[in-house]
Amino acid sequence: MKASRREFLKLGVAASTALLPLPARAQGAAPRVVVVGGGFAGASCARALRQADGRIAVTLVEANATFTACPFSNAVIGGLRELSAQQFTYDRVAADGIAVARAIATAVDPPARSVTLADGAHLPYDRLVLAPGIDIRWGALPGYDEPAAGQMPHAWRAGEQTLLLRRQLEAMDDGGLVVISAPANPFRCPPGPYERASLIAHYLKTKKPKSKLLVLDAKDAFSKQRLFQAAWAELYPGLLEWVPLSKGGAVTSVDAATRTLTTDFGRHQAKVANVIPPQKAGRIAEVAGVADGTGWCPIDPVTFESKLQPRIHVIGDAAIAGAMPKSAFAANSQAKTCGAAVALLLAGGAPSSPKLINTCYSLVAPDYGISVAGVYQPSASGQLAEVPGSGGVSPSGAPRATRAAEALLAEAWFRTITDETFG
Amino acid sequence: MGRTLAAAIGLASIAAATVASAEPPAGAASCSGCHPASTRVTSPVPRLAGRDQAAIVRAMQDFRSGQRAATVMDRIAKGFTDEEVQAIAAWYATQQ
Predict the structure, then answer these.
(1) CATH 3.40.50.620 fits A2-63+103-135+280-352, yes or no
(2) Considering only alpha carbons, which residue of chain B is nearest residue A356?
(3) In angstroms, what separates the C-alpha of B6 from chain A's closest C-alpha?
(4) Is the ipTM reported for this complex over the cut 0.85?
(5) Could you report the per-residue pLDDT of A164-177, keeping only the tens digit for each?
(6) Which of A184, A287, A351, A377 is the most exposed place for a label (fewest CB within 10 A)?
């Protein structure tokens, strides 16, 4: 109780210094927030806004009627799960009083505070939240354009691409070479390529044991590396080989017609090739002028407001969130923080410094899970930084019972975060 | 003019306080990514809403010190001060 009274006094003082948005509120007009993108970031934020202040009129703009989740989609590729288990509608989000506009946002006019939809409609906003996820940088890897993805799937946005990669693996004869190309940082889901390698290796070991999996990497280090490598040595010896940048792992071009991946050290002709290509913030971020030269979006770590455009907030994979990884949990954590901050800003308040969490599981086998966790706060330099002494990965050398427990926790994690976002 | 301003300040304070009463303290909003907010979800991870404040504080202290076995909570508890844990626990204790 004491804390809330202090909070009240502090906010009262803060609010008195920020009078500009008030006249509209004083006359009773509901503030309008438009959220573009209905993934873990956008849908969570739309809900957080309504929870923080039920007077806010929230519109969620999303092109698809169904959301297909990326976390656990590697289990779909490995034949352990059906894609339908990854899919969610927006019915329950709409039932929360959120206007769900099934549309593509094509333009943003920051001075006019308006979003344009593909059908020409305009959505005015007092604050805009952009949660567009990633786009592929087509052509950044020579030979990898949109048609090439039909031969060498990226499967980095879940859905048809996920099924395509799975079907290719199922159609492959035993003894074939599967190649995964992993990109340089930053990209969506840092441990994702290595979980995928693990679950494809599990599929091959179980169904096509004479096959081989090669991971060609544009990096020398990756998330949860020691844990993955120890598990690979234990579970998939001789089957899975990881080639780092320093050993010639960086793929410099691909040829989709022959499924050939070229590195500085040679060529690999694959039976199945999964090219995880370079990425950038989803297109609307660039259109709105919130993406910088890196292709990602610099933000204020307290409010997630763009450093390039006022009244536009960017959350999830598209944002440059310092030490926070581009993960579903980070997106959900940022969404709730941003939603509360936006509600407070609209009411004339001043958000205080937040703390955010990431918790992310990877499956190395169906009964073998590993995790990474972190706690983050804004640093003096204005970035989200890990709280010193916190976070880290699962212990090395833990018994298999611990790995099995984390595999079960991974599934519980998925049920919980998807329920909070879409359920 | 002066009166309008004073009235505006009053309204601002009320508006901000209305929002603030529902606003979780730093860090609290993130917990529900793993600790289900809804009773619909089946999970070995316990719900936090409505739990005893002292019990949450004790659990966080034990996770941080290593006295209580953990998978990820030892790593997460180390990211929060005693004051932050108290505020988070107090907030969850009042939630339904």
Answers:
(1) no
(2) B27
(3) 9
(4) yes
(5) 999 999 999 999 99
(6) A184
